[in-house]
Structure formats: C-alpha cells, structure tokens
Specification:
By secondary structure, the protein is α/β, with parallel strands linked by helices. It folds into 2 domains: about 1-35, no CATH class; about 45-169, Sandwich (Immunoglobulin-like). Helix content is about 25%, strand content about 25%. The strands form 2 sheets. It has a 5-stranded mixed β-sheet, with no helix packed on it. Strands 1-3-6 form a 3-stranded mixed β-sheet, with no helix packed on it. Helix 1 (about 1-20) packs antiparallel against helix 2. The two termini are about 35 Å apart. Residues about 1-40 have low confidence and may be disordered. Bound molecules: copper (II) ion (CU).
Length: about 170
C-alpha cells in the first residue's frame, strides 16, 4: 500500500515537473517502474516473516527445497524508531560465522548495517526496515540440505537472540 502511494508521488512529481522542464520526467520514471516490477521472479515462493518492537522473527523457522526460488517478505509492525529497532533479514552461508559478521555489520551504519566485507559470506539479505515498512529479497535456496542461519544485523539484535533458521530439505 505504502509503496504504491510513494510511487504515485514520484510519478506525479515526474509528470508535474515535465510541464516546465521537458527533459526531466524521463529519468524518475525508469527507476520507479523498475522498482515496481522488481519481484519479477514470478515462480518464487513467498515466505512472510513478521517483526515488531522485539528481537524476534515470526516465524523463526522456515524451510525450502534445495535450489528452490524463494522470496522473503519481511514486515515490521512496530512503532519504535528505526535506529533502535530497525530489522533486516541476513541469511548466512555458515552459522559459525554469525558472531563475526554481526560485529562487522554493527559499525556499518552508512550501509544499513551490512558491511561490504561480509557480503561474500551471505546467501541473501534485505535492506533495514523500520516501523510500517516492508522489504523483500528473492534468492535460490542452497543445493545442499541442512540448516542455514539468518540474523538481524542491527547492532545488538543478534546478540539478544534475533535469529532464525532456514531448513533446506
Ligand atoms: Cu533487528
């Protein structure tokens, strides 16, 4: 709902500014369209995960088939400020690396707590969301069966237990 409203605003601005500056409107339109059609992986199965003003994913246990295309839709229904209670979904290749990854990301505020250096250790991640926001990411589940840990890299959240498991089976 909210995303659609935002696109409308961008759209209106683009159209309005086109009246006085004919060269301007083409640019804002393209990204808006690209964003709107981003979930192009039509065959991906959607898994909804809720978060709020707590350090939990609901559900914290999800599953996928090996190689399955999955879209995680993360929703934040809380009210606290994003800086304190922002959340993301960060799926790790190796659970044993979680502590190190969380520590590096905690200081990466400029990149929404995803440190550039840890990206090779991740299978998928969303942007950081605050109250009322939603983020999504589409990825291919690993071919290898097993449990894959996902964590929130907002500072302190993983340490306080914000984690879940994707079981590939
Ligand atoms: Cu969090």
């Amino acid at each position: 709902m909210r995303a659609a409203a935002c696109l409308c605003v961008v759209w209106s601005i683009a159209v309005l500014s086109g009246v006085s500056a004919p060269a301007a409107p083409a640019q804002p339109r393209t990204p808006a369209l690209a964003a709107a059609s981003a979930p192009a992986a039509a065959s991906a199965r959607v898994i909804q995960i809720q978060t709020a003003d707590h350090m939990k994913y609901i559900p914290a246990a999800i599953s996928a088939a090996p190689g399955e295309s999955v879209t995680i839709v993360l929703t934040h229904t809380g009210k606290m400020p994003k800086l304190a209670m922002g959340h993301n979904f960060v799926l790790l290749k190796k659970a044993s690396e979680a502590k190190g990854i969380a520590e590096k990301c905690a200081s990466a505020r400029d990149t929404e707590f995803i440190a550039e250096s840890v990206k090779p250790q991740l299978l998928a991640y969303t942007k950081l969301i605050g109250p009322g926001e939603t983020a999504q990411v589409t990825f291919t589940a690993p071919a290898q069966r097993g449990d894959y840990l996902f964590i929130c890299t907002c500072p302190g959240h993983f340490a306080m237990g914000m984690k879940g498991t994707l079981t590939v089976k």
